[in-house]
Design brief:
By secondary structure, this protein is of the alpha/beta class. The protein has a 22-stranded parallel β-sheet, with no helix packed on it. Strands 41-42-43-44-45 form a 5-stranded mixed β-sheet. A 4-stranded parallel β-sheet has the order 22-24-26-28, with no helix packed on it. It is elongated. It is a single-pass membrane protein; Single-pass type I membrane protein.
Length: 725
């Protein structure tokens, strides 16, 4: 990076003196000082350079006001002070520079009105005041600029109307007045100025009609822009403006049918978004076939109107230069013509919110330059074509709210540039392909909600480390929430409600500290409400309702204490929490029962791990009614013996009762000659479910008759009620 030179007064005076000598002696035109990173203010001594013809100080960092002494430079022909930070008002005496041809004060911080005195600059051809903070109105005296060719006042705060005197400037070619607060109508004199090639009043408050025949009166027109105004009229006949390259009329109130455009062979941009065009009839798109002559067509935006009918087959004959085709938010019906695949340079295709039906044509895969594909809100059916995998440059894929069926094609994983996918509100089914989560480029959203997906959430979901929104709600997904989900540290919204997920909420999700919305409602989740939620400072809404949570008290910190932002209803085992949640108070019995339930679950998981899933390598004995396994507990290295009984064998139940009774005699343990160390554990295998006996010993109590009796009672109760107590 270079440094900024701050101009001091002595330096500038010396420099000015040297320039004066050169100009006087040799009529020398001084070198420009653009892009030298100069700063400070422009010295008033510049007014002493009476022979100066060109003053080029653009692309620097000058501040303060323009010195009025510039008005002394009567020989000045070119003045470019653009791209600085010059403020203050434009000095009126700059109009004394009577020989000036070019004045560029654009992209500064100028204030106040355009000096009416500028109307005396009879030789000026190019006046650029755009991107400042100018106010007031356009002086009618600018109609005296008889030599003016280019007048650009865009992006200021100029109000009022366009003076009709501007329409009498015979040499005027470029008139740009956009980005102001102009109102009223366009003077008819403007539409009769045949020399105009560019006319723009975008982003104003203009209104009224546009002459229907202005294609005849402006035969040299190349660029026409009226975007974001309030013009009300039928679409004008522009077919005779054969030099027209851009017609930009979005965001107005134009009505009626679009005329044929076959003479506009140079047309590159035709934008009529957000008007009231079309009648919702079958013939609304008849004009499209006339655009096949536009061999330079790049932008065709017809969205947000009232067009009906079919998309004509002739679109396959559009120029291959077409990059954007917007037909969304209309009343179009029928199918997408397969010829769409011939528009090989198409980058954006939007047809969402129409009445389109049929299948998505496989020819869509021929659009290998496509970046954005929007087809949501239609009536498409059938499968997502495998050819979508050919769209390797695709960034956004939107096909929600249709009737699509089948599975997500695995070929989609070839679209390595995708940042957003929306398949929501369809009839898609099957499992979610793990390959989908290999798209590490996904950063905006992955929405698979309201379909019929089954199976578990693949552990590969952890690859989506840049994803902002994950929505898999309203499906038939099951299984435990994968621990790997905690790797998605960029998530802002996590929506998993309305599925069949079970098990505890993984502690790994504590890393999702950027979440603002967390919705796990209507699942079968168990265990406790995570304490770490209290530390999620950005969390605005959390919904854990209608699960089986309740292993501990309801937390009272963080977002949980805000009852309007939290929903935990439908969890019958919960107690405590803030009063507004209206849960019962936690009692000793609540706590004991929850502790026992949690202990049984933890014990079973420990036994499963200690025996490698009751592997045969851990088998130490087999009897008539069951098997005995040896295990090593991870927690403290305790060696345990676990007996698994098969109660489906006749007599097994009676044998089990006898053994439970015998366990009350501690000498029984010694006969097996197995070191148990304060952990007498019995397990019963019933229809693939293991119930663990004597949990009190696992929780650290000494072996005793009381413990045996308690455990025996629990097992009997479970056998009689067939419920896990």
């Amino acid at each position: 990076m270079g440094t900024t030179t701050r101009v001091s007064l002595p330096y500038f005076v010396v420099h000015a003196a040297l320039v004066l000598v050169f100009c006087f002696s040799f009529q020398f035109v001084p070198k420009s000082h653009e892009s030298l990173k100069l700063a400070g203010s422009i010295s008033p001594y510049i007014g002493n350079l009476s022979f100066l013809r060109r003053l080029h100080l653009e692309n620097n960092s000058f501040t303060h006001a323009i010195p009025p002494e510039i008005g002394r430079l009567r020989r000045l022909r070119g003045q470019t002070l653009n791209n600085n930070s010059i403020g203050g008002e434009i000095p009126a005496n700059m109009s004394r520079c009577s020989n000036i041809i070019l004045m560029d004060l654009s992209v500064n911080q100028l204030l106040g009105n355009i000096p009416p005195e500028f109307g005396s600059l009879s030789k000026i051809k190019d006046l650029r005041l755009f991107m400042n903070n100018l106010t007031g109105s356009i002086p009618s005296s600018l109609g005296n600029l008889s030599s003016i060719i280019r007048l650009s006042l865009t992006y200021n705060n100029i109000a009022g109307s366009i003076p009709d005197t501007l329409g009498y400037l015979e040499n005027l070619s470029f008139l740009a007045l956009g980005g102001n607060m102009l109102s009223a109508t366009i003077p008819s004199s403007i539409f009769n100025r045949s020399s105009i090639t560019t006319f723009s009043v975008v982003l104003n408050r203009m209104q009224g009609n546009i002459p229907l025949d202005f294609g005849f009166t402006l035969p040299n027109l190349q660029h026409f822009g009226i975007v974001f105004n309030n013009f009300t009229a039928h679409t004008p006949s522009i077919n005779n403006a054969s030099k027209l390259e851009e017609f930009l009329a979005a965001e107005n109130k134009l009505t009626g049918e679009v005329p044929h455009l076959e003479k506009l062979q140079r047309l590159s941009q035709f934008v009529i978004t957000a008007n009231h065009l079309g009648r919702g009839g079958r013939d609304d798109f008849n004009f499209l076939c006339s655009l096949t002559n536009a061999t330079r067509l790049e932008l065709l935006l017809l969205n947000d109107n009232n067009f009906g009918g079919l998309i004509p087959e002739c679109i396959s004959n559009f120029s291959t230069t077409l990059a954007s085709l917007f037909l969304d938010n209309n009343k179009i019906f029928g199918s997408i013509p397969p010829g769409i695949g011939k528009l090989v340079n198409l980058r954006r295709l939007y047809v969402w919110n129409n009445k389109l039906s049929g299948t998505i044509p496989s020819a869509i895969g021929d659009l290998q330059n496509l970046r954005m594909l929007g087809m949501s809100g239609n009536r498409f059916s059938g499968n997502i074509p495998l050819s979508v995998g050919n769209l390797k440059m695709l960034i956004q894929l939107e096909v929600s709210e249709n009737f699509l069926q089948g599975t997500i094609p695995s070929s989609l994983c070839q679209c390595k540039s995708l940042i957003g996918i929306n398949f929501s509100k369809n009839n898609l089914s099957g499992t979610i392909p793990p390959q989908l989560f290999g798209l590490s480029s996904l950063s905006i959203s992955l929405d698979l909600s309201r379909n019929h997906f089954t199976g578990s959430l693949p552990i590969e979901v952890g690859n989506l480390k840049n994803l902002g929104v994950l929505d898999i709600s309203g499906n038939l997904l099951s299984g435990e929430i994968p621990i790997s989900l905690g790797s998605c540290t960029s998530l802002e919204k996590l929506l998993m409600q309305g599925n069949k997920f079970y098990g505890p909420i993984p502690s790994s999700l504590r890393s999702l500290r950027g979440l603002s919305v967390w919705d796990f409602a209507q699942n079968n989740l168990s265990g406790e409400i995570p304490k770490f939620l209290a530390g999620f400072k950005l969390l605005e809404n959390v919904n854990l309702s209608y699960n089986d949570l309740g292993a501990r008290y309801v937390p009272t910190e963080g977002v949980i204490k805000n009852s309007s932002a939290t929903s935990v209803m439908g969890n019958s085992k919960l107690c405590g929490g803030i009063p507004k949640l209206q849960f019962p108070r936690c009692t000793k019995n609540n706590s004991s029962n929850q502790k026992i339930s949690r202990g049984l679950k933890c014990l079973y998981e420990s036994l499963l791990k200690a025996t490698d899933g009751f592997s045969s390598t851990h088998l130490i004995g087999v009897g008539s009614f069951g098997s005995v396994y040896k295990g090593l507990l991870d927690e403290d290295g305790t060696v345990v013996a676990i007996k698994v009984l098969n109660l489906q064998r006749p007599g097994a139940s009676k044998s089990f009762m006898a053994e439970c009774k015998a366990l009350r005699n501690q000498d029984f343990v010694k006969k097996y000659q197995i070191q148990i160390k304060a952990a007498l554990l019995d397990a019963v295998y019933v229809n693939s479910t293991v119930y663990v006996n004597s949990v009190v010993y696992r929780l650290g109590s000494e072996v005793s008759t009381n413990g045996d009796v308690y455990s025996y009672g629990i097992l009997l109760l479970e056998m009689v009620t067939r419920k896990n107590q």
